[in-house]
Amino acid sequence: MAATTPSVERAGNGVRSSAALNFLKASPKKLLIGGKWVPAKSGKTFETLNPATEEVLALIAEGDKADVDEAVKAARKAFEEGPWSKMGPHERARYLFKIADLIEQNADELAELETLDNGKAKTQARAIDIAGSAETFRYYGGWCTKIYGETNPSDPSMFNYTLREPVGVCGQIIPWNFPLLMAAWKIAPALAAGNTIILKPAETTPLTSLMLAQIIQEAELPPGVVNIITGAGATGAALVAHGDVDKIAFTGSTEVGKRIQRSAAGTKKKLTLELGGKAPNIVFEDAPIDQAIEGIINGIYFNQGHVCCAGSRLFVQESIVEPVIRKLRDRIGTLRVGNPLDKNTDVGAINSQAQLDKIREMVESGVDEGAEMFQSACALPTRGFWFAPTFFTGVSQSNRIAQEEIFGPVLSILTFRTAEEAIEKANNTPYGLSAGVWTEKGSRILKMAQKLRAGVIWANTYNKFDPTSPFGGFKESGFGREGGLHGLAPYVVLS
């Protein structure tokens, strides 16, 4: 049992929602298995912290292999025997629409819980994470009635047809940077296709997944259709290794993704992985510079840089390097870093001490390798996990800060002369998740989009998402897509 007793008054200081505070007071949090809230079989719990203050928010049940086994059994029963497998698509759709409605009705408390648990600015959580989660459930609710099979031209004496059927029991493991939104991205398409689910949220950000579980119960989803197991890496590993799981969907680091791929190799499991990134954000001399500056800021400092598709490598055409750097330095100076619950905050807290240590180590490597660092002069709070917005100039392609994912508010600036050089440098990374292109020439945008090895490419904007659009990458950024019609494909089998 974790030793620290949570103090809701301290950890939730500044929270306005009484529902969020009441949610925190119900500690320790339990596991949702088969429609019931149960403690971990071992009795173990762990702490989830407010990264802005380092105060304990709640104690969380630490599920292990035995709990995972119970959750898989519940999901299998719901899939094979329960009303979910016998339900028509119109009825399934109503459940997803109801969940979307309830997310919107509980948006304020969800946003505050996300902010407390993650460290992100509440204004961003409310406008992007919570709104996007509701939109995702509503979008996939519309797909329930549109998952078609085909009739195939064949000999007139035969009736030849195909069906798209659910995969079965799906294990889903989500990261800590967008906890509720990533849960929605995985749960909604799986439900739309008729699957059952065991969701494992990140150990540092379990709260909104647990509140989503309450919402799912309020929507009266049949027991066992969605199960929530909290815990650390070993809990996720037990889910991946379980022999009665039909599909694994994982979003997280490339390192962990590779371990999951090795574990699933040679099994029946379908697998999709959305992993790390080191995205190029490319600015040509004819770009709308002021607009590009805002896109650069949004691309790397949004969500403290805790974004897999963050534009962490800025490529600037040589002729405009000086004005771009000058404007960028001025703009960074206006960013407000501090209390994530304050509506005026732009950049919140780093999610954990471990992530802060990694960011610091990577920044030190940039200095050691000869790059020149500029850092915002903003005052940082004395408690919590904080890092000022930072960028480097004089970066070489071989520098670690130009090759490795930092996952923090740190930008590396490089230069290029021609479009061909920009493409070559941009593609010179193990990753291929996203990219940005800034130019007035439509023909150049199309050319760059064809040549850049990235799954998502933005033109004259950055970090824009829509539930209708597929998201995913190439190379070590993983495989498979989430969002849109393509996000349904991993959750159906053709028969």
Written account of the structure:
- There is one protein chain.
- This protein has 17 helices and 23 strands.
- It has 495 residues and is an alpha/beta fold.
- It folds into two domains: 285 residues, Aldehyde Dehydrogenase, Chain A, domain 1; 187 residues, Aldehyde Dehydrogenase, Chain A, domain 2.
- It has a seven-stranded mixed β-sheet, with helices on both faces. The chain has a six-stranded mixed β-sheet with strand order 10-9-8-11-12-22, sandwiched between helices. The chain has a two-stranded antiparallel sheet with strand order 1-2.
- α12 links the parallel β13 and β14.
- It starts with 7 loop residues before the first helix and ends with a strand.
- The model has no long low-confidence stretch (mean pLDDT 95).
Brief description of this entry?
The chain is of the alpha/beta class and 495 residues long. The protein contains 17 helices and 23 strands. 39% of the residues lie in helices and 18% in strands.
Unreliable spans are none
How many angstroms does the end-to-end distance come to? 48 Å
Helix content: 25-40%
Shape: globular
CATH architecture descriptor name of the largest domain:
3-Layer(aba) Sandwich
The number of domains is 2
| Strand ordering within the main sheet | 15-16-17-14-13-19-20
